[in-house]
Amino acid sequence: MSLLLEMRGITKRFPGVVALHDVDFDLAGGEVHVLLGENGAGKSTLIKILAGAYHPDQGEIRLAGRPVRIDSAIAAQRLGIATIYQEFNLVPTLTVAENIFLGRPPRRRRCSSACTSGSAPTRPWPSSSSRSGRWSRSPRR
Ligand SMILES: Nc1ncnc2c1ncn2[C@@H]1O[C@H](COP(=O)(O)OP(=O)(O)O)[C@@H](O)[C@H]1O
Ligand SMILES: [Mg+2]
């Protein structure tokens, strides 16, 4: 099976510590992997490199056989790499859906009754102040 992701010879140093030394990680399409290791083993650092949050000191990343430079979170997103961080911040004024899709709102919306009635909404979801749409928060009980 051809490889979707190849991380080869990844090395990352922080002041006083080598977080990753010559690490290889391969992933084929449809596979699910678990990165397992003790605290400080470098799991988060490896994923942050893939996510564009950190830059490796050495090594290469290939996607579908093509060398890529992932120098920002946006670059990672554009390559189809999505990351869910262990610790993250939510925007309290946005809905759950808006938080999930922060920075990459859906461009299309599934056709619902609004489409057939000829009044398709212009926003991908109702505003956070609206409680009536399927994307908005459930009413508080
Ligand atoms: N931003 C950072 N600055 C300095 N050292 C870091 C930084 N991030 C991680 N480290 C160090 O790199 C090593 C690997 O950390 P990390 O990738 O968080 O491990 P894990 O996720 O496996 O617990 C640890 O020694 C950690 O202290
Ligand atoms: Mg970690």
In the predicted model, the low-confidence regions spanning at least 5 consecutive residues are: 118-122, 130-141
Q: Which structural category fits the helices and strands?
A: alpha+beta
Report the CATH superfamily of the largest domain.
P-loop containing nucleotide triphosphate hydrolases
Beta content = 15-25%
Domain tally: 2
Per the CATH scheme, the topology name of the largest domain is Rossmann fold
Write down the secondary-structure element order: EEHEEHHH
Mean pLDDT: 83
Description:
Helix content is about 15%, strand content about 25%. The longest helix is centred in the first third of the chain and has 8 residues, at about 45-50. The protein has a four-stranded antiparallel sheet, covered by helices on one side. It starts with a strand and ends in a 25-residue tail after the last helix. It has four helices and four strands; from the N terminus they run ββαββααα. The protein has helices at about 45-50, 75-80, 95-100, 115, and strands at about 5-15, 15-30, 60-65, 65-70. The chain has about 140 residues and is α+β, with helices and mostly antiparallel strands. The site of magnesium ion has 2 residues, from helix 1.
Short characterization:
This protein is 16% helix and 23% strand.
Layout of helices and strands:
Layout: E1 3-14, E2 17-28, H1 43-50, E3 58-63, E4 66-68, H2 73-78, H3 96-100, H4 113-116
Antiparallel strand pairs: 1-2, 1-3, 3-4
The protein binds adenosine-5'-diphosphate and magnesium ion.
